Amino acid sequence: MLIVHKYGGTSVGSLERIKSVADRVAKARRDGNSLVVVVSAMSGETNKLIDFAKYFSPNPSKREMDMLLSSGEMVTASLLAIALNEMGVDAVAMSGGQAGIVTDSFHTYARIKSIDTTSIKRELDRDRVVVVAGFQGINRSGEITTLGRGGSDLSAVAIAGAIGADACEIYSDVDGIYTTDPRVEPKAKKMSYISYEEMLELASLGAKVLQNRSVELAKKLNVKIVAKSSFSESEGTIIGEEREDMEAVLVSGIALDKNQARVSLKDVSDRPGIAAEIFTKLAEENINVDMIIQNASSNGLTMLGFTVPESELPKAKEIIENFDHDIGGKSFDSNICKVSIVGVGMKSHSGVAATAFSALARENINIEMISTSEIKVSMVIDQKYAELAVRTLHSVYELDK
Ligand code: ADP
Ligand code: ASP
Ligand code: MG
After folding, report:
1. How far is the CA of 115 from the centre of ligand 1 (A)?
2. Which element (helix H / strand E) includes 163?
3. Domain 2-173 indexed as CATH 3.40.1160.10
4. Rounded to 5 degrees, what are φ and ψ at 74?
5. Which of 17, 135, 230 to mutate for ligand 2's pocket (most ligand atoms within 8 Å of CB)?
6. For a substitution probing ligand 1, which of 181, 193, 400 has the most ligand atoms within 8 Å of its CB?
7. pLDDT tens track for 90-110
8. Segments of the chain scoring below 50 in pLDDT
9. Which ranges in the chain are annotated with CATH 3.30.2130.10?
10. Cβ-based neighbours of 302, under 8 Å, separated by 6 or more
11. What is the reported pTM?
């Protein structure tokens, strides 16, 4: 079989860990597989490099950040190839660019445009294990780009799709996808299978076990993902097409996102065009607005609230503070979080949201904002109740059973 393995930060977090990854790769080779191995930087490394840059500048050039951050993955890719060669497993390390990954020029959050698989295929034909530095590519002018945090998952899925791999196995410190983050609810249960749609919602709503873009791409290219642990031999979770029997389950998972902040605007003039003006300004600065609520107006004034990623709050705040007309009061709050329930079964059942609201009410947790889609319900609550809310919802939908 032709398989892509991807090892995340903790899996390559020390030299010993890289050695055990090499052992795992060598075993997969002995079993007769052809392998491309995508690696992350050693855990903590990317954050350390960001801090280094911040020492010199609060707002470093994004091009230089990509030069800097791509180095973390280069270290692990080359070390893994060296370790494999030493064990008698022929291996070659490549940067994202050398592996043929071409992206747009949006530095620090680039999108993959195409993959030229010539080099990877040539090395596979020579019976070598190809070790690729994740999280990076090059643009058309040969400049190094990176793919956004957690982007090695995306590199792995994109390569798996491009070479037509039989599976993309993503190794981390958990042995699969759980009904919720097992660090928050130890009673969480491992799923043997989850649909792309549900996984995409969970990942987009805060379950960082897989990067959301990687799930989106896997669905598009129909790449079978298997989430596994690099610390054990356990089976893992398959992420694939939705199955007929899945709608029987109302809620399959719960996600928590603590990196959200809220902007509340009071006494906003209720006239056509005001929302357009506010949100256009935010969009121009690439701020990701998520939930939006607006009250019915009274006396020509209304209230407008919305959430943004916490990291984008300073920029959003600057824009809103400079907005000098039509808004009476402005306030900003990063002590909130978003808890979401996800399940394809919601499409065909009613009352799912009501159950969540009642469960939180029983715990005296106030819901400050709500948004729904076909297969999810998200609620904004005070951050101090984050874990309690996750555990409460986990139990009310009997996910621990
Ligand atoms: P890597 O560094 O290998 O990319 P991550 O730290 O990005 O790994 O992802 C693994 C972590 O994701 C786990 O340690 C776990 O705490 C967290 N996680 C969040 N939600 C879930 C979930 N539903 N199932 C499994 N793990 C989850
Ligand atoms: N090293 C990068 C990060 O920490 C990419 C990755 O690990 O997937 O975000
Ligand atoms: Mg990750």
Report:
1. 27
2. helix 152-163
3. yes
4. -65, -40
5. 135
6. 181
7. 999 999 999 999 999 999 999
8. none
9. 254-396
10. 268, 270, 294, 295, 296
11. 0.94
